[in-house]
Amino acid sequence: MNYLGNQRYLSHLMSLRRDPENAAPLHEALNEKRWRRVLRARGQRPIWMSISYLLNAAARLQPYQGRTPRIEDSVDILGGTFKSPAAIYDARLQCDLQHSSNSQSIYTTDEESNRHMDFYYLFNNGKMRYFGSPISLENRQQIILNLYKDFTTSGVAPHLVTFYGQRNLKKSDGAAQFDAETEKVIKDLIKQRPVPQDHYLLMEVNYANAGINATGLATNLKTPTFSEPLLVRGFYAPLAYSSINNLRIEGEDLMTLGEMPFSALCRSTYGYSFEDGDDRIFLLETPIFLPAGMSLVMDFKNSLFGNYYSTEFDAGNTLLTVLAETM
């Protein structure tokens, strides 16, 4: 069991009880790690970059090529996921993946076989799949993803591929730095508690009616504010078909570039499970530093592919749960 990633805090409390005479140095060592974690969260942001494809029903020899958006900062891509209507799954779909600085695919195959990577092996439908090693993108570099569909299907096949990674802010960026007063406040908050305290920020997502896309929008939604700075660690909502867009901290750059399936933020459709390997809450590799009194802002759309598959949409009201913790 991974205790939502908090095994280290449980271990710390157990150590205190076993060795109370060593409490001061144990606290000091953990507090230094907590402070370093806050610094890392301040200097990095999670980022999701999406590529949208519409594959024709007819077979095609040429690949469908997509590129991730260009951004000014360096990004380390950790993994990816995709979403497509359930009715169009076909295991014959293939792909190759390139770095914009190198035209060679990262996958080596037998040229005579004319085969590429199996798309459904590289990307999991509705669940993040991590790469063996991060793909590093420097200033304005891109990932190029080619899809190969050399077979005929009964209809068009929309696919939305989302890459997840970490955006590294420059030290000159004000959003990556703490002033002396804020640093003192945070260090004092860390000292006040033996371990961080969980907080769940609840935000209602209200689709006004059961329509698709144009009428199934919920825009400019904001999480509740909190009197202290928080580290946002994960998200959960029972949404099967929705997209989340324009995710950001108030006044900062977007963390989602392109339309993103909500499944890229949440590993499962319904219910909580804290069993190791089956968390419904998607835990971020690096948490989001949310300043005191600030909100996360985002837009929702209730259907990714409603224009093609009219039965795939979310309706009504639901709660988005944002898992956060204090300093």
Strand and helix map with partners:
Elements lengths: L6 H12 L4 H21 E12 L8 E4 L6 E10 L10 E6 L2 E4 L11 E2 H4 L1 E2 L3 E9 L5 E6 L8 E12 L11 H13 L5 E9 L10 E6 L7 E7 L6 E7 L6 E2 L2 E2 L20 E9 L5 E6 L15 E9 L2
Parallel strand pairs: 1-15, 3-7
Antiparallel strand pairs: 1-10, 2-9, 3-8, 3-10, 4-5, 4-6, 4-9, 11-19, 12-18, 13-17, 13-19, 14-16, 14-18
Helix pairs in contact: 2-4
Overview features:
327 residues, alpha+beta, Jelly Rolls, 2 domains, six-stranded mixed β-sheet, five-stranded antiparallel β-sheet, globular
Question: Termini separation (Å)?
Answer: 24 Å
On the 0-100 scale, what is the average pLDDT? Answer: 84
Architecture per CATH nomenclature, i.e. the level-2 architecture of the largest domain: Sandwich
Helix content: 10-25%
Strand tally, please? 19
Q: Major β-sheet, in short?
A: 6 strands, mixed
CATH fold description of the largest domain: Jelly Rolls
The CATH class designation of the largest domain is: Mainly Beta
| Rg from Cα | 22 Å
List the total number of helices: 4
Strand content: 35-45%
Task: Tell me the series of helices and strands, N- to C-terminal.
Answer: HHEEEEEEHEEEEHEEEEEEEEE
